[in-house]
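User: For my dataset I need records formatted as: sequence, then structure tokens, nothing else. Please produce one.
Assistant:
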Amino acid sequence: MKFIVKILLYAIAVLATGYLLPGVSVASFTVALILALVLSLLNVTLKPILVILTIPVTLFTLGLFLLVINAVIILVADYFVTGFSVAGFLWALLFSIVLSIINAILNGIFNSN
């Protein structure tokens, strides 16, 4: 049940972020829900591999390279999900930052036990 609530909150955060950023387009709530599932799947599978492969660069940049990894994951999701588009790398970077902030706010509001 918790997983479903987290995916729904993530989809709402995706819709809100898509509304706020002009370089990002999310067609509907259904697309946002699919994107939330795809991003969750990519964060579980692809992100750990990328983090391990880029440990030296991540250490050298004091962790800021993780933002680049998040943007790359957004661009991969853009490739797989129709109805979602990102204008470029910088928009993907902004999308990941704003999405993280909105998602943290929504989780703080709705998951306070």
